[in-house]
Amino acid sequence: MAAARFVARVRAATARCRERDRAVLDGYRPIGGDFPGMGEHWIDVRTLFSGTFTPEQPPILEYATIDGRPALIGVAYALPLLPGEMPPALPGNVAWHSHIGTVEDESDLLSQAMESHGSMRGARLAMIHVWAWLPNPAGTFDADNWALPFVRAGLAPPATDPGSVAGRVVSLASGGDAFYERAFLSVAGATGSDSVAVHRALATARISAAAWVARNRGADADHQALEELPRVWAVMWETLDASLGSGARTRLLPLRNR
Amino acid sequence: MRIPLFIVRRALLATAIIAAATACIFRGVKVAPVAHTSGTTVLSAVKVHLQDGETVVFAHGIRIDGDTVHGAGRRYGLTDSLVSNGSDIAAIPLDSVAAMESFTNYVSGTETAIMTTLAVGGTVLGTVALFKALFGSCPTIYSDSAGVPALEAEGFSYSISPLIERRDVHRLRAQPDRAGTLSLDVRNEALETHYINQLELLGVTHAQDEFVLPDAEERPLAVGAIVPVARAVDRAGHDVTSVLAENDSLVFRSDPKTVAGVTATDFDDWIDLSILVPPGRDSVVLVFRLRNSLLNTVLLYDEMLRPQGARAVDFEGRDLNTIADMVTLGRWYGSRMGLHVPVRQGGEWHEAVDVPDAGPNRQTRARANREPLRHDGRLRKRAPAGRRA
Questions:
Q1: In the predicted model, is pLDDT for residue B232 greater than 80?
Q2: What average pLDDT does this structure show over B82-92?
Q3: pTM for this predicted structure
Q4: Nearest-by-Cβ selection for A45 from B166, B198, B322
Q5: Which of B10, B330, B354 comes nearest A80 by C-beta?
Q6: Which of A44, A102, A116 to mutate to test the interface with B (most CBs of B within 10 A)?
Q7: Contact between B322 and A102 using a beta-carbon 8 Å cutoff
Q8: What is the Cα–Cα distance from B294 to B316, expressed in whole angstroms?
């Protein structure tokens, strides 16, 4: 109940920023890339370093392009904390996670797999997401919102959490393929034939994802339909296994095992 | 005092991305003090800092004869704009001069190889041309004043690192022409590598007796009926009311004893302001006309970058883009720099608002803050010790 009241406060305070131009006027600007399960982060550095936590003033707004227009989908709170400092308790004892590396390091799949929600002791940016405008079936404060790829693809958001694998596959049909290609190439250190293999594997998976989206457009994707998606992801990895050199394949293992 | 509402009309002027340029030759600028002695001749550009805070730039050098500095100079006011009452100047009395610096271009063969690599890396630590060394190293914005370019603003006030770059709003003095066209010229005068993400012109509708300033959150604010503070006293106990009363050439500067007493843990100066609050008002707007003392610029370039030598590029490109390092630097910076305005209430000072410091590259700025009123109407303006207008 307290969490619902918190979200209601966030919605009331950020309704004016549903028009992204308004947020720009308020000092927000984009940082990092467009994440399949999170969208774009728009940050107001002044609020970030204001030293206060105010639910009505989130330092980060999250937007995603839906139907060709930027849409406010959520907010994030970030607190720059020094060693020994702790973030305030939130309704429902929701856990903050922390970021310490570069934006690029903290953004790719490998860092998220191995180091996200890192140490809470040193200097860090403590962070929490609040999906105030696009409900997250995995939980209002969960970092990834895998309903987003469905909405971006013109589908109804699933009633229950589709999971990260299903979300990633659907995202391939609405721009996520470029995100994963960059991540795979970066982590694998892929060049030459390896980079061609990564591109082909993702392009093939994208075709399968787009076909799945087309079949399910206009109807709620049921449990049975959702179960088809992990197979697309698995086939993509099998393709990569068969076509990548051993070095690139080894370096990609941590991603495959997520 | 009016608490304004404002209407903002926005027009996108341009969005430009200036591609990275590589430099194969390192060009530098040597800055050296100029002796105040008769017979001194300098053949390169000289910047003369006057006692009243204004500056005179002699682009082609000077000659000192007796008690007079001769040359073909242009005089700039506290806001770095050309003074209106005769900017061209041929001679100035030596006793009106606080300091003089000469600027000389040079090309370094040794550093050429280093800078070629660094420039390819996309750093902004590239070449610095002579003119920009005189006024800064960021994109400048000029308006057309009857055919003469007038310096209006210098961007990138908060851009020492992409991670903490911020919106940067400047007040323009230029007016549209009869056809309603406002012509602005954005220049990259030092041929540095600049990335401009967004450039907008904000038009603000306001009453005729108001003027518009950016507030502490960089939002336009229309203010009017400005009244001087009733009393202003600095940390050393000096009454500086008359110094701050008018927008003139009188400049507040920290008492030498305050500056001499600076330590690593106490380098603040402050001014206690007493304000006569009109009856029935519940808030007040503070309007500051400031000139950055360039302490930030010195800290960044001379203390943080220069000692690191070539590693400064890693510091800019990697360290300042590491979240943990930026948290540490940002927290220190926010707590120690800028203007902090506490309000006296119940016999104690309570922090009311911070005006973040003008960034390492900020030259001039007018600021406004809305303050909740307290019945004793006293505020304290605290900032690192140094000269302020």
A1: yes
A2: 75
A3: 0.70
A4: B166
A5: B330
A6: A102
A7: yes
A8: 19
B323–A49 CB contact, under 8 Å: no
Q: Measured between beta carbons, which residues in chain A are less than 8 angstroms from residue B326?
A: 80
Sign (positive or negative) of CA dihedral A86, A74, A158, A154: negative
Nearest CA in chain B to A99: B323
CB-based contact A205:A232 (threshold 8 Å):
yes
Instruction: Pick the residue from chain A with its C-alpha nearest to B216.
Output: A46
Burial B154-175 (b: 16+ CB within 10 A, else e): bbbbbbbbebbbbbbbbbeeee
Is A31 in the same domain as A81?
yes
Last residue of a domain, one of A116, A145, A174: A145
Asked if residue A180 belongs to a domain, the reply is yes
A136-145, B12-21, B174-183, B349-358: range with lowest mean pLDDT = B12-21
Inter-residue contact B305 to B124 (CB < 8 Å): no
pLDDT score of B8 more than 60: no
Domain that holds residue A103: 2-145
Q: Are residues A31 and A128 in the same domain?
A: yes
| Whether A24 and A113 share a structural domain | yes
The verdict on ipTM greater than 0.90 is no
- Predicted pLDDT at B226: 81
Provide, as residue numbers in chain A, all residues whose Cβ is less than 8 Å from the Cβ of B321.
102-103
- Rounded CA-CA distance B325/B277 in Å is 44
**A250 shares a domain with A190:** yes
Determine whether the interchain pair A27/B167 forms a contact, defined as Cβ–Cβ distance below 8 Å: yes
Name which residue leads in pLDDT, A238 or B30: A238
* SS3 track for B232-285: EEECCCCECHHHHHCCCCCCEECCHHHHHCCCCCCCEEEEEEECCCCCCCCEEE
A77 and A192 together in one domain: no
CB contact under 8 A, B331 and A80: yes
DSSP for A111-129 reads: HHHHTSS--SSSSEEEEEE
Q: Is residue A119 part of a domain?
A: yes
Q: How many CB pairs under 8 A join A and B?
A: 68
Least confident of A215-224, B56-65, B106-115, B310-319: B106-115
Q: Which residue of B has its CA nearest to A106?
A: B323
- Residue in chain B nearest A31 by alpha carbon: B163
Residues from chain B that touch A99, judged by Cβ atoms under 8 A, are: 323
Same domain, A79 and A202: no
pLDDT grade for B79, boundaries at 50, 70 and 90: low
> Which chain B positions have a beta carbon within 8 Å of A111's beta carbon?
none
The answer to whether the CB atoms of A46 and B217 lie below 8 A apart is yes
Same structural domain, A111 and A183: no
Mean pLDDT of chain A: 88
Asked whether residue A156 is assigned to any structural domain, the reply reads: no
